[in-house]
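Box 3.1 A note on notation
Throughout this textbook, protein chains are presented in two layers. The first layer is the amino acid sequence; the second is a token string describing backbone geometry. Keep the layers aligned when reading.
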Amino acid sequence: MSNLGSQDKRALNTIQLMRKMARRGLLGTLEYISKQGFNGIWQKVNSYLQLSRVHYVNSRFDKQHRVDTWRGITPSQMKTDSGNIDHSEIYTPMPEKTFHYVLTHLNLDFSDYTFVDFGAGKGKVLLMAANYPFKEIIGVEFASNLHEIAEHNIANYRNEQKLCSNITVSLDDACNFRLPEGKCLLFLFAPFKGPVLENVLENIRQSLIESPRSVVLCYVDDDLPYSTIWQVDAIVEKWGILTRRIIGEIPPDPGSLMPMTGTFWLTS
């Protein structure tokens, strides 16, 4: 079981619960419910139903486009020699509706911009970004097994709405990545934390000082107390070179368990 991602383990728990109820039979199940309490049982069943919905929505994206993005990967499963593994977050696929909702709020002429996804994982964000006419789409991923999957997904991706085919994913630590010249849309789906996040943001600041240009920094995270979006906001605010635009609470997405929020900052 050690090779299962967190989402796979939850799905397995769902199957195990159904099997237990089948073995108990109707009377045994009713007795179990009476002991556990209806509310407790309903909360468990409801959470399993939500997980099943999320799995279905995200796996449907993969089947439709002939890719592999929906299964989660924990940091312990990531293959990398980087010492920054301790500051990596779990890979989970970016919900499709959330991504498009965020991009429609940016009000940009995408054809002028290079799209950069930090912590690209299996490349789902890159694939969804291909529905927009970006000059170029670049992913940055430090785990070799995720990088390999992302490259495979880029090669196999099929979508009639695809508007950009200039897509690459770099096997690199985000702390070492140099921003491309020209206008950039920098996208982060809460990929890392702590000093790695601080170093990446500092590299962005230095790049803007050395080569002033139009840049949009977009950050999306779970709308929960542990969200790192407030840390990013506090750091960027001190720069004095980007203006904040709050996307705010994002409408519920069937591909996500958690409510989500987003903020973007752009050069004046």
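The chain has two domains: 6-65, 75-267. Residues 6-36 form the longest helix (31 residues).
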